C-alpha cells in the first residue's frame, strides 16, 4: 500500500479480528445461534430457522468504525458463497506432487475439466446450496466454472435472514460503508459445503504496495499523486532516484543490465506466454502506450477481464495496476497480459480467484494486493483452494510479500502484531520481497541491501512466519520454525534506488515497493516457461532445490545487508529477502532444466456413480466403478477401498478389471457401525499408474432412534416415554424425519402459550448430539417462537441450538442442529414452542422433534 495519497487511508480496513475470532469460537460449539430479538417477528434473523453451524465470512467491523444506523431493508446486496472441494485432501496432495521434482507426477498438470471431475464440489452439492439460497428468497446469479463459488443477490433484509447477520451502516476514514454484524450461521448440511461467505461488507479488503520516489513530476499525477511532491512516500534524507528513466527511475534496460537478463529478454521475452494480474482498480491505456514508446518496447494492450462488473472509475489503486503492467513488460515485453479487474470487496476477491482458476488462460499470475494473515484470515481458505487448482493446472503464482516489514497488519493500522501477508504466505505461491539496488558504472550490478526507507509506514520489505501454513518440506532445510516463512525471493523495490519509471496520468514517477518486485518476477518466470516450452506450476520446490545447491552463488545475488525492522538479512535464505535476487541468464536454465518424468505409457481414469450414498446401520449400498483407458493399452486394474468405518466392509465384483471395464462396489455395514459421514477412497492400480475416487458414505441409526444416552430419541415407541412434557405435546405419524413417528409440540399451550419436551441424560462418551426439528407456521397470520437448548448441568453452561420463528405461512421442513457432548457430563435437552397466534389470529405455530441421537446421524 502506497503512502502517497491520503485518500488511500480508506484501504486500511479489511477483515476484522472480531470476525475471525467469532468463527474460531463457533467451531467449538457447533450450533450456537444469536439470541432472538425480544418480540419482533421480523428481526435480522426472522427467517433464519435453520442456522446451526458457524461459517467464515466478512461479517464484522473494526473497532474504530462508527455505527450510523441500520442498513435500509431494501438495499440491494450481492454475496459470493465459496464451496469446499469435494476432495480437499486429495487436491492438496496432488498440488504438492505436481510441484515436487522427486514425484512421478511432477509437472503432469490437469485441465479445468479434469479438476472438476476429480476435486470440485459436485453438481449436487452446488444445487444444494442453490436451493437453500432460493428458499431464503435470494436470486442465484451465477456459479463459477470450477463450481467453487455461487453468487447471489437479494435485499439487505433477505441477506440478513439467510445468513443470520444484521446489516448496518458505518463510517470509517471519512467514508461510508455497509458492514454486517453477527456471525454467519447456516444449516449443518449446507455449512459443511461452505468455506466462506463474502459480500456482507462492501468495505475495501485488499491493499497494495506501490511506492513513489522523490522525483515525481509536480502537477501531473492526478488524485493518486497529491503527496508525492512532499516526499511522504519515503523518509527525509532518502537517496534521490538515480536511474536513466524519466524522473530518475530505473528504465527497463537498467534493470535488465543490473540483474543480467540481457540474453533472457532478447532470446525469450515471454513470447507465446500469458501473464495475468490480480487487480482491484484500473489503468489508462495511454499511460501504457507512453511507457512502451519511451523505452522502445513492443506495444502492450492488456486484455481486461472484468469480474463483478470490474471498476467503474479509476481510484488510488491506478498506480498499482499501471506499475504491474509495466513491470511485467520489463523482462517479458512479448508476453500477452490479462488484467483481472474487480471491485475491492471480499465477494469480488473470491470471485476473481475462482475466475482465474476456471479460465486457465494465464501461465503466470502476479498479485500485489495483500491480506494480513492474522487480521484478515476469513477468505484465505477459499483462496487457497483456487491456488491449489491453479498449481494443479500448471499456473505459476507470484505475490508481493508486503511493505510493512514483519508487521503484516500495518495496512490495517496494527503496527504491533508480527504476522506475514497473504497470498505470499501460501506455499503454492512464490513470495517476493524487496531490495535497495545499487548499480555501478554502465548500470551493472554493484550491491543490494534490504529495502528499508524507515521504521514506520509501508516503507520496507515484508516478511515473516505464517500463522496458517506449516513449513513445507522443501523449506525445512533452511527454516527451523514450524511455520512457513516468506519471502522466497526478492527484486528491486526501493522507489529511490531501484524503482521503475512509469507514466501515470501523463507524468513520470519512479515507483517501487514489493509491488514492483513481484511482477518483475512474474515476467521473468514467463520467460522461463517459454524456454521450457511448457507451464512450470509452483516453482518453490525447484527454487529451493537450486538455491540449496552449489549453483546458488552463480544463480542468485545473496542479500546479506540490512533489515526490515523485524528480521535481518543473513547469508542464504532469510525473512527479509528470501534467497535474494536473480542472476537472470544463469538461473533460468536451472529452473527449467529439471527433468520431468514421462507420463505412464499405459494410463486410465476411474470414476464412481453414484459418488455418495446413505444407509442405516446393518444395510449396504452399491456404486458402479467405471474405468477408461486414457493412453496406451488396457491393463489389469486391481481395485481396493480404504477409509471404511468400524464394522463396514467393501467388496468389488469383479475384484479386478481390464481397463475400460466396470465393477460393482458394495459397502456393507453392520449394526455396530457408528452413525456418521465417511469418505471412502476407492483406488485402482495397474503396473503403470494408480488413480483414486472418493465415495461419501452416510450411516444412520436404524429407525432414527437414539443412541446410548438419549432415550426414545426417535419416538419409535409411539409414545413420549423418557421425555417430560409441558403444555401441549403428542406423538404423530407425519411429518417425520425417520422411522414412523415424531413428536409434535403445540399448538397452543399453557400460561404464556408455551409447550415443551425435555430430557435429562448423561453422556457416556464424547461426541456430537444431533437434533432434527421442523417448524410449521399454519394459517394466514402465524406468529410464534421455538427454541432448542442444551444445558450442561455439570459445568452450568447452556447452548441455544436453534431458535426458529414464525412470521409467515411455512410448511414443516426438517433441519439438523448439533452440539458436542463431553463424556461424563449430565445434560438437559429442552425443546419449547411458544404459539402466540392460536389465541389472537386463528393461526398456529408448531414445532416437530425427531431423531435425537448421540451419534453423528445424517
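^ C-alpha cells above, recovered residues below v
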Amino acid at each position: 500500500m502506497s503512502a502517497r495519497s491520503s485518500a488511500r487511508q480508506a484501504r486500511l480496513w479489511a477483515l476484522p479480528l472480531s470476525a475471525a475470532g467469532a468463527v474460531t469460537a463457533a467451531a467449538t460449539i457447533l450450533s450456537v445461534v444469536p439470541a432472538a430479538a425480544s418480540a419482533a417477528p421480523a428481526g435480522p434473523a426472522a427467517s433464519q430457522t435453520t442456522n446451526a453451524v458457524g461459517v467464515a465470512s466478512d461479517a464484522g467491523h473494526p473497532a474504530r468504525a462508527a455505527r450510523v444506523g441500520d442498513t435500509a431493508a431494501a438495499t440491494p446486496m450481492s454475496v459470493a458463497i465459496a464451496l469446499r472441494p469435494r476432495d480437499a485432501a486429495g487436491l492438496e496432495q496432488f498440488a504438492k506432487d505436481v510441484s515436487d521434482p522427486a514425484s512421478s507426477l511432477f509437472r503432469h498438470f490437469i485441465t479445468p475439466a479434469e479438476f472438476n471431475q476429480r476435486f470440485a464440489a459436485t453438481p449436487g452439492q452446488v444445487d444444494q446450496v442453490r436451493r437453500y439460497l432460493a428458499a431464503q428468497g435470494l436470486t442465484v446469479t451465477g456459479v463459477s466454472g470450477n463450481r467453487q463459488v455461487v453468487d447471489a443477490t437479494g435485499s439487505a433484509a433477505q441477506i440478513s435472514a439467510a445468513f443470520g447477520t444484521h446489516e448496518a451502516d458505518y463510517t470509517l476514514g471519512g467514508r461510508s460503508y455497509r458492514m454486517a454484524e453477527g456471525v454467519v450461521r447456516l444449516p449443518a448440511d449446507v455449512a459443511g459445503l461452505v468455506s466462506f461467505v463474502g459480500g456482507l461488507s462492501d468495505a475495501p479488503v485488499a491493499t497494495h504496495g506501490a511506492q513513489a520516489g522523490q522525483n515525481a513530476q509536480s502537477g501531473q499525477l492526478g488524485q493518486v499523486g497529491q503527496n508525492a511532491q512532499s516526499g511522504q512516500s519515503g523518509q527525509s534524507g532518502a537517496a534521490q532516484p538515480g536511474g536513466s528513466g524519466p524522473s530518475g527511475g530505473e528504465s527497463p534496460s537498467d534493470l535488465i543490465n543490473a540483474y543480467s537478463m540481457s540474453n533472457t529478454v532478447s532470446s525469450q521475452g515471454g513470447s507465446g506466454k500469458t501473464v495475468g494480474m490480480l487487480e482491484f482498480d484500473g489503468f489508462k491505456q495511454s499511460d501504457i502506450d507512453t511507457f512502451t514508446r519511451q523505452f522502445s518496447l513492443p506495444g502492450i494492450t492488456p486484455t481486461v477481464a472484468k469480474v463483478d462488473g470490474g471498476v467503474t472509475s479509476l481510484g488510488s489503486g491506478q498506480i498499482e495496476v499501471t506499475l504491474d503492467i509495466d513491470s511485467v513488460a520489463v523482462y517479458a515485453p512479448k508476453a500477452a497480459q490479462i488484467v483481472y479487474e474487480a471491485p475491492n470487496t471480499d465477494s469480488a476477491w473470491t470471485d476473481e480467484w475462482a475466475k482465474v482458476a476456471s479460465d486457465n488462460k494465464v501461465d503466470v499470475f502476479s498479485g500485489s494486493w495483500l491480506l494480513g494473515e492474522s487480521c484478515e484470515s476469513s477468505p484465505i481458505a477459499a483462496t487457497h483452494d483456487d491456488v491449489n487448482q491453479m498449481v494443479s493446472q500448471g499456473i505459476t503464482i507470484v505475490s508481493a510479500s508486503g511493505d510493512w516489514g514483519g508487521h503484516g497488519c500495518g495496512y490495517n493500522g496494527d503496527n504491533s502484531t508480527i504476522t506475514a501477508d497473504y497470498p505470499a504466505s501460501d506455499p503454492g505461491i512464490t513470495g517476493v520481497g524487496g531490495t535497495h539496488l545499487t548499480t555501478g558504472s554502465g548500470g551493472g550490478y554493484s550491491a543490494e541491501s534490504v529495502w528499508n526507507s524507515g521504521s514506520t509506514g509501508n516503507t520496507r520489505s515484508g516478511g515473516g512466519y505464517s500463522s496458517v501454513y506449516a513449513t513445507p518440506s522443501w523449506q525445512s532445510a533452511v527454516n527451523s520454525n514450524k511455520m512457513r516463512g516468506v519471502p522466497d525471493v526478492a527484486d528491486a523495490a526501493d522507489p529511490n534506488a531501484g524503482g521503475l519509471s512509469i507514466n501515470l496520468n501523463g507524468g513520470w514517477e519512479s515507483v517501487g515497493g514489493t509491488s514492483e518486485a513481484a511482477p518483475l518476477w512474474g515476467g521473468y518466470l514467463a520467460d522461463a516457461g517459454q524456454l521450457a516450452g511448457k507451464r512450470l506450476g509452483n516453482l518453490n520446490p525447484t527454487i529451493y532445490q537450486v538455491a540449496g545447491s552449489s549453483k546458488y552463488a552463480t544463480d542468485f545475488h545473496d542479500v546479506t545487508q540490512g533489515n526490515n525492522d523485524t528480521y535481518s538479512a543473513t547469508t542464504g535464505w532469510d525473512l527479509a529477502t528470501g534467497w535474494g535476487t536473480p542472476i537472470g541468464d544463469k538461473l533460468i536454465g536451472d529452473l527449467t532444466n529439471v527433468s520431468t518424468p514421462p507420463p505412464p505409457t499405459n494410463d486410465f481414469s476411474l470414476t464412481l456413480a453414484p459418488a455418495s450414498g446413505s444407509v442405516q446401520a446393518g444395510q449396504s449400498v452399491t456404486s458402479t466403478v467405471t474405468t477408461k483407458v486414457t493412453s496406451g493399452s488396457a491393463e489389469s486394474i486391481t481395485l481396493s477401498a480404504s477409509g471404511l468405518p468400524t464394522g463396514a466392509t467393501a467388496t468389488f465384483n469383479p475384484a479386478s478389471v481390464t481397463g475400460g471395464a466396470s465393477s460393482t462396489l458394495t459397502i456393507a455395514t453392520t449394526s455396530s457401525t457408528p452413525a456418521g459421514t465417511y469418505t471412502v477412497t476407492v483406488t485402482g492400480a495397474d503396473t503403470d499408474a494408480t488413480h483414486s475416487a472418493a465415495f461419501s458414505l452416510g450411516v444412520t441409526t436404524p429407525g432414527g432412534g437414539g443412541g446410548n444416552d438419549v432415550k426414545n430419541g426417535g419416538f419409535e415407541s409411539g409414545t413420549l416415554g423418557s421425555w417430560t412434557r409441558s403444555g401441549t405435546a403428542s406423538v404423530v405419524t407425519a411429518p417425520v424425519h425417520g422411522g414412523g413417528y415424531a413428536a409434535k409440540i403445540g399448538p397452543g399451550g399453557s400460561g404464556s402459550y408455551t409447550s415443551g419436551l425435555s430430557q435429562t441424560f448423561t453422556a457416556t462418551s464424547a461426541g456430537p448430539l444431533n437434533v432434527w426439528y421442523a417448524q410449521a407456521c399454519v394459517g394466514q397470520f402465524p406468529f410464534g417462537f421455538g427454541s432448542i437448548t442444551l444445558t450442561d448441568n455439570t459445568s452450568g453452561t447452556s447452548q441455544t441450538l436453534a431458535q426458529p420463528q414464525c412470521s409467515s405461512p411455512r410448511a414443516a421442513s426438517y433441519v439438523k442442529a448439533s452440539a458436542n457432548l463431553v463424556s461424563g457430563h449430565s445434560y438437559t435437552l429442552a425443546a419449547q414452542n411458544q404459539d402466540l397466534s392460536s389465541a389472537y389470529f386463528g393461526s398456529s405455530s408448531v414445532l416437530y422433534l425427531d431423531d435425537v441421537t448421540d451419534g453423528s446421524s445424517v
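The chain is about 20% helix and 30% strand.
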